[in-house]
Structures are given as C-alpha cells and as structure tokens.
Q: What sequence folds into this?
C-alpha cells in the first residue's frame, strides 16, 4: 500500500480548509442532494463529499456508508487532491498502490473509485466528490464530465458558504469600526488626491462646527486659517509629484478654523492608503486647547519658581563664596567649617533646582540650544578646571588624553559643559581616594568620542538597563552615600541626543566605568575670528617651559583664572610665538634646552617689540639668574623658585596687568535684587568700578549720559523685560558696549546674536562670572584701540 503524499502547499491548503469552518458540522441537504444524484446517476453503492483534513478524511455528505471518517494515510481521496483531473482507479486489486489497502481487503471492499477534486477560490484542493463500487468498472468521457460537473456544484456550495460567512464577518467588522469612529473623541476624516473631503466622523462635525454634508465634497482647506489654507493644495501637489512628505506619516501641531471663524490649536496625523487605484489620505485630529493652556500655566509656574528660587540662591551662594575666599579676612576654623557646609549645601540645592527645571524643559521640548563651532581640546581643559576643586575634595585628579589636538564640533558649549560636569563629577564621586579620572578624545567610526573613565566599583548589573532613566542611582541605599538627584544622566542623554550624538557606557565590576558620548564633526573649522581675537588678547600669556608637566600646570592655573595661555618648549619656539602674537606677559624657565634663559631675556630687551613685555621668571635657578643680570631687571615682574607659589604668581600677574593699562573699566549692572548686585560688585572690585541700578528707567538715563565698558543685564526687571534695552542701546553712545545677560532665564538665539555672553545665575560660579566679565572688558579695550565694532566672544 502506498500512502498519499502531502501537497507542496499543504500548510496553505490547511489554512483554506480552516476558513471554510465545515469539518465536523451536521449534514446539510444542499450537499446530500448532490451525493444522491451522483449515486443514482452512476448506479454505485457509495457516493461521498469527502473533506481531506490534516490526518483524516471526513465526510460532509455520505450515501451508502456508515463511517463518518477514515484515516488520511489509507484514503483514496488523499491521492485525488494531488491532481487537477478526476482521479480514477478501475480495479483496486490490480493497482499496486491499493491492492493491500484495508479499505480494499476489508469493508467497504473498494474495487472501483473515481474522485473529482474540490477547489476553493485560491485554488487549494480541500476534498473530493467521489463515487465507489465493489466491482471493477470504467467511466466513459461523458461520465467523467458529469462527475466533474457535479463536483463543480459542490464547489459552488462550499464557496457560497464561505462567502456568506465572510460577508457576515465583514458586516460585523464594519459595524464595529463604524461604532468606533462614531464614538472616538478624535476627529477622523478622509480626503482624495485633490484635497476634497470624502468622509468625516461625528467628532469632526463637533470639532469644527459644520454639518457632515457641509464638509463632504468640499476642499479640506476650509478647516484651516491662513496661511495654511493657501499653502495646502500646493503641498498636496508637491507631495504627489515628488513624494517628499512634511506632514504625511508624522504628527504635527497646527491651527484649525471652526465654522464661526474662531481658531484653535490642534494635533494632526495623516496617513496614506490606496483604494481601487486611487490615493486616499486619512487625517486624525484632536483639539489641544486644554493641553496648551496647561503648558502655559506650567511655563509660568516654572518661570516663577526659577526666579523666586534661583535669585536668592545666587545671592546666598555668591556671598558665601566671597566670604570663604577671604574677602573679609581670615575666619576662625569653626566658622570656616560651618561656612563650608553652608556653601556645599547651597550648591547642592542649586543643582537640584537646575536638574528639576531642566527635566521639565526636556519633557516639554523647550530646552534652548545655541550651537556654535567649538574646538574640543580647550573645552576639555576648561571642563577640568571647572570640576577640579570638587575632585580635589575627594582626593581625585583628572588627566586628559588628547588624540585630536585641533578637532571641532558644532554644539552648545554651556549644555556640553553641563554633560561634562555630570560625567566628571560622577566619575570622581565613585573613584577611590588617590585615583585618577581620565578624559580622552579620539575618533570612533567617523565621529568624535569624548570619554570619561573612572577606577570605581563598576555598575551593578541590576542597574545597567535603567542607568539613563530619571531618578536612577546605582547607590540607592537609605544612606545615599554618594548624594545626587538621579537626574544627571537622564539630562545628559537628552542633551547629547539633541546635539545629534549618542551616549553610552562600558563597565566592569571591580575595575571601573567609562561613560562616553559621540558627536558629529563640525562642518567647518572654527572661524578665524577667535584665532585673531586670541592673538590680540590683552590677557594672553606665553609660558616658556621645557618640562611638560610644569607647563601644563601653569597653563591650567591661568585657564582657571580666565587667561589664555600658549606653551613654548624652548627659546626658539618662544621667539617664533612672540613674533606672531602680542602677549600680555610671559613666564620663563631659565634652564631651556637650546638657550640660556638670561640670554633670552637680554635678547628680548633688545627687541623693540618685546622690550616692555612683563616677564615672571619661574625657575629652579631663579636666584642665580637674577645675580647674572646684575640689576638689569627692567620688566621682570618677579623671580620665583620652583615649586610655584600660586598666590605670589597671580599677584605678579595682576601687577603686570596694571602696568599695561591705567584705565579703570566702568561697568553698569542692571539688577533689581540688591543682594545679587552686591555680590557682583564684590567680585569685580579689583578690576573695575561698577554702577548698579534696579530698573530699566534708571538704566536708560545712565546710558544716555555715560559711556560704559560693559553692561551686565538681568532680564526680569520690575518695569519690563531686560531685552527691551538692547534696541535702545543702539541709539546711544554705548552701541558698541558689550552686554552680558546674567539672569535666571535662558536667552533666545536672537538675543544671543546681539550680546557678548549669556549666563544663567544658578549655573554660573563666581569664578566663571568673574572670568567672563574680565574677558569682555579686555575684548572691549582691544576693540576700542583698533576702532572696531562690538566685540564677540567667538
């Protein structure tokens, strides 16, 4: 016996059979009528409508047979469904496939079989109409055709059943879909390629105030105010022509117009589909008036919180910082310790407020970014300087591995500094005492990678999957030994992604963790404006030192205090730099590899360009050099032995700065909070005279009467927005005076283009504010000397 093979499309055939829902159903007269006709027409004892299932053949209709099913592996019908034509076995005992088949050797003792396959709409054969006899016989061509015709009638009944069931199912689905469309709160409509409305649901009627028949058949631009109305048809035409989509496939916030002419904010999503060869666009829209109102209230609340918390915190932190720096003299140890605690916690509270407000801005998509081309190596040095004091309290130091000495990115320096400070402070916080945190800069797959690596305990596996989520901390124990809000990495991730980059980490338990971010290269190098500005900067220092560690230390000290510094490794390089750049002062090691430092001093004094250059000698042989010059020490500010006395070093630099300029810069500070004004005045006491006013009216009067070297402006003033002053400045003698925004508010891109710098109070340390003020004053002095316009920080 040969069991029937399975068709190559058995899986699809079985799916088609399942869709019929016919197996194991009761007998039906429409099928029984056809098997009776076949039995009588062909004068056979058995006639069947056989359905070939997975492992059986089941009889939907049977004449002359008691069994309702038999196994598929002994079935004749299993063979019949493998072909297209009627399958006929004249004598089963003479056929090698069937002579020992149990259906032949036992009841029902099949000798003759003829079966016509039954196909459904997709061509799959699900069974047969078959006739069986207990004696051998053959069929004439007319009988073959008659059996095929009867089988076609069975097929029609099967297809009709499927059609009836499918129609019922579609009707039910349509009713369900219509119920959904009629009750959903969103407005749903469809339009054709010309923008003509085809259908609308009740929510669309309610949303726009038109009746259904007032919209259907009309252009959808009737639901839009200008300028959307005029542009809509052109947009559809452009999309159909080019395939470039602006709205289709996306969700956007737009403005809708009701029948009564009123407008409202809405959110619109449009999808495209094809029906009968015609394109149809389906729009889903929702009134977002309440959401917008809530967002406005939220913005107003955040603005109030920002001002009412940040402003007093700025005063508190600034005043504490000044006292700790010794501005009122030496403090008792106990008082100093208490001040340290107060300062640390004011700083902690400031960071908490900043983080919470930043998270809110990120969620609302309102975090401002002012991207510009920026060189990364100097930026990394600045980040190290900003975070070094915190690391020192933990007995941790930063190192920098720079594989890209002249690489640039297009980013917001303030936001990027926020990311760096978070990564660096985290690394320092989780590092053991005496360890080093390495910052590295290199190229990875065509992008710039900045990485921060610590030697800490690594990140536990249970925290790794959620490390960038809000309020997540690896140290979440009750003791909270490491402190922090758990918001920093979430904010860092959002910032880096806004800058077009990616952030990630690598960690190994007990070895350490590296956090990194990748940024795209800037399209162009940094503008030459900054290089030119540096060459003429009146606070530009040349370091002539052959020891790379000492040179880096001096450069870091200078960067921390707002100076720009270049390094020369020998006398030849120093003379080359001096020929190219005008420096404010120079530090000099006497033990240079290519020339004695004393002879270099004499050479510089003989050169008219460098004759008056202030020099601070920093050398292990400073005393010997002083004796060798034999009193000829004109322009030598100080002779310092190594190691460097930092206090004495900066005292010398200040003397050099005073020697190069006698003008006392004049600053106008427009600030309504007297505490903040007092702190800023104390910060700049040694570099400028400051005049403070509390409103715009007083500021306008002073600006009309006097020329200032710098204006420091708060934006939230009692008689108006500080930005109102910027157009007024252009009409006064202070039109070229640089302006620094110092406020609790972030500054818009338009305002930044019109000012020198923008600083947020709660994010700006005393040192940063002082450095920016000093740089602005120096830049203004240089601009006046050269007869140029308002300086730009570059």
A:
């Amino acid at each position: 016996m040969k069991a029937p093979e399975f068709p190559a499309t058995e899986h699809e055939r079985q799916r088609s059979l399942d869709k019929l829902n016919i197996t194991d159903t009761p007998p039906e007269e429409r099928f029984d009528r056809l098997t009776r006709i076949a039995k009588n027409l062909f004068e056979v004892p058995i006639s069947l409508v056989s359905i070939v299932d997975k492992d059986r053949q089941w009889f939907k209709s049977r004449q002359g047979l008691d069994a309702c099913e038999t196994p598929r592996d002994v079935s004749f019908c299993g063979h019949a469904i493998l072909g297209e034509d009627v399958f006929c076995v004249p004598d089963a005992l003479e056929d090698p496939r069937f002579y020992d088949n149990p259906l032949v050797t036992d009841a029902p003792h099949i000798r003759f079989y003829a079966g016509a396959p039954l196909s459904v709409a997709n061509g799959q054969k699900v069974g047969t109409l078959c006739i069986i006899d207990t004696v051998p016989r053959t069929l004439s061509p007319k009988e073959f055709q008659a059996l095929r015709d009867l089988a076609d009638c069975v097929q029609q009944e099967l297809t009709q059943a499927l059609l009836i069931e499918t129609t019922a199912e579609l009707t039910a689905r349509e009713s369900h879909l219509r119920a959904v469309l009629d009750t959903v709160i969103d407005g749903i409509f469809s339009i054709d390629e010309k923008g003509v409305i085809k259908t609308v649901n009740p929510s669309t009627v309610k949303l726009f105030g038109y009746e259904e028949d007032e919209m259907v058949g009309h252009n959808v631009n009737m639901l839009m105010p200008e300028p959307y109305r005029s542009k809509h048809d052109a947009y559809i035409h452009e999309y159909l022509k080019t395939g470039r989509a602006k709205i289709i496939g996306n969700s956007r916030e737009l403005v809708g117009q009701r029948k009564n002419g009123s407008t409202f904010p809405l959110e619109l999503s449009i999808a495209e589909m094809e029906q009968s060869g015609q394109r149809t666009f389906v729009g889903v829209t929702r009134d977002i008036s309440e959401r917008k109102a809530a967002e406005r209230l939220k913005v107003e609340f955040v603005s109030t919180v920002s001002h009412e918390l940040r402003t007093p915190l700025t005063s508190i932190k600034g005043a504490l910082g000044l006292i700790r720096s010794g501005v009122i003299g030496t403090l008792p140890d106990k008082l100093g310790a208490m001040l340290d605690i107060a300062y640390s916690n004011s700083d902690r509270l400031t960071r908490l407020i900043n983080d919470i407000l930043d998270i809110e801005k990120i969620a609302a998509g309102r975090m401002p970014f002012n991207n510009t081309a920026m060189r990364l190596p100097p930026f990394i040095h600045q980040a190290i300087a900003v975070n070094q004091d915190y690391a020192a309290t933990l007995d941790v130091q930063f190192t920098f591995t720079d594989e890209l000495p002249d690489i640039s990115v297009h980013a917001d320096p303030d936001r990027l500094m926020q990311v760096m400070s978070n990564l660096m402070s985290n690394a320092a916080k989780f590092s053991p005492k005496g360890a080093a945190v390495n910052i590295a800069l290199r190229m990875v797959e065509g992008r710039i990678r900045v990485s921060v690596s610590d030697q800490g305990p690594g990140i536990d596996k249970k925290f790794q999957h959620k490390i960038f989520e809000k309020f997540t901390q690896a140290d979440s124990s009750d003791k909270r030994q490491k402190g922090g809000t758990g918001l920093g990495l979430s904010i860092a991730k959002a910032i880096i992604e806004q800058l077009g980059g990616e952030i990630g980490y690598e960690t190994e338990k007990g070895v350490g963790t590296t956090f990194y971010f990748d940024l795209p290269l800037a399209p162009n190098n940094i503008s030459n404006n900054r290089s030119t500005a540096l060459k003429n900067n009146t606070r530009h220092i040349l370091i002539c030192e052959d020891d790379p560690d000492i040179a880096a230390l001096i450069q870091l000290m200078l960067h921390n205090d707002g100076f720009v510094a270049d390094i020369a490794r020998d006398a030849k390089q120093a003379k080359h730099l001096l020929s190219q750049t005008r420096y404010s002062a120079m530090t000099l090691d006497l033990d240079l590899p290519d020339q004695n430092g004393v002879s270099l001093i004499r050479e510089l004094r003989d050169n008219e360009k460098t004759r008056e250059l202030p020099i601070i000698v920093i050398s292990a042989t400073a005393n010997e050099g002083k004796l060798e010059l034999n009193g000829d020490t004109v322009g030598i500010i100080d002779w310092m032995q190594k190691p460097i006395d930092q206090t004495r070093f900066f005292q010398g630099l200040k003397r050099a700065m005073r020697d190069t300029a006698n003008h006392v810069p004049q600053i106008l500070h427009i600030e309504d909070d007297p505490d903040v004004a007092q702190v800023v005045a104390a910060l700049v006491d040694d570099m400028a005279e400051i005049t403070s006013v509390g409103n715009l009216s007083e500021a306008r009067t002073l600006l009309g009467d006097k020329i200032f070297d710098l204006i420091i402006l708060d934006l939230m003033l009692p008689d108006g927005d500080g930005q109102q002053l910027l157009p007024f400045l252009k009409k006064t003698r202070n039109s070229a005076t640089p302006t620094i925004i110092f406020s609790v508010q972030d500054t818009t891109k338009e305002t930044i283009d019109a000012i020198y710098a923008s600083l947020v109070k709660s994010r700006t340390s005393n040192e940063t504010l002082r450095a920016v003020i000093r740089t602005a004053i120096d830049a203004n002095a240089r601009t006046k000397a050269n007869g140029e316009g308002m300086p730009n920080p570059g």
In short: The chain has six domains: 10-166, 184-287, 292-364, 372-519, 539-660, 666-786.
